[in-house]
Write a structure and sequence with these properties.
22% strand; seven-stranded mixed sheet; Rossmann fold; alpha/beta; binds S-adenosylmethionine
């Protein structure tokens, strides 16, 4: 099956490839961003829906092995662990400086999400919040996330909607995807796939910027 055709037919064309120079550029950019606590905070209010949907989706968390892909300073991983002491949570990120801010108790692994340094089927749950958009090769990153998920494991992705492209300032490598194209891609590797628009707060209607995609392998 030609996955590139499935995924790329409706996507904004991108001429970039994740060569060593671009990897360095992305890493450096996020290393610098690590000192910007206003735009890249270390904590998140657990009542925010982006956190709540993960807590609900992975429940019961118990001692599950969870991987936060592109974890930044680990603000989501922090809440998941605080609310589930037995969970085995790992944060993965391209930026060592971001990882330095991840709180104790959470595993830290650096690298790029298109080459995840984990064995097949090694996690019960994998999630990526506002990080897949930086993968450059989105398709390969999804393939990798699904590879390291065990059969029956769950994957959640929270990211921005391609139809809203232009609404925010973005670096040259960033790419947003549509609801359907990511659903189609996930369906190649997972049995159950769905998505929904998401807002920050329970009493706010989604404004179309964010979706959450859920998949079960
Ligand atoms: C916008 S931040 C989001 C951080 C975190 N998920 C959160 O919501 O707080 C994007 C993160 O993805 C990481 N990242 C970008 N490209 C990456 C790649 N190719 N592989 C792994 N991590 C990457 C960045 O270093 C950064 O920490």
């Amino acid at each position: 099956m030609n996955l590139s055709r499935i995924f790329r037919r409706s996507v904004r064309p991108v001429a970039l490839s994740l060569d060593p120079q671009l990897r360095r550029e992305i890493r450096q950019s996020f290393d610098e961003a690590a000192s910007d606590e206003e735009h890249f905070p270390s904590t998140i209010d657990p009542r925010i829906l982006h956190v709540q949907v993960l807590l609900r989706f992975f429940a019961p968390i118990g001692n599950k092995r969870l991987l936060d892909v592109g974890c930044g300073k680990g603000r989501y991983a922090r809440v998941l662990l605080e609310q589930n002491n037995a969970a085995r949570v790992t944060g993965f990120d391209i930026s060592e400086r971001m990882l330095n801010c991840v709180p104790p108790g959470i595993g830290k692994v650096s690298g790029i999400m298109t080459e995840l340094p984990f064995a097949d089927s090694s996690f019960d749950g994998v999630y990526a919040t506002e990080s897949l958009e930086h993968a450059v090769d989105i398709e390969l990153a999804v393939v990798e996330m699904c590879r390291i998920l065990r059969p029956g494991g769950k994957l959640a992705i929270i990211d921005k909607n391609a139809e809203q492209w232009g609404r925010l300032k973005t670096p040259a490598w960033e790419r947003w995807f549509s609801r359907r194209e990511l659903e189609n891609l996930l369906s190649c590797y997972c049995r159950i796939v769905r998505s929904e628009p998401i807002s920050y707060w329970d009493d706010e209607k989604p404004d179309g910027l964010f979706f959450v995609w859920y998949a079960e392998k």
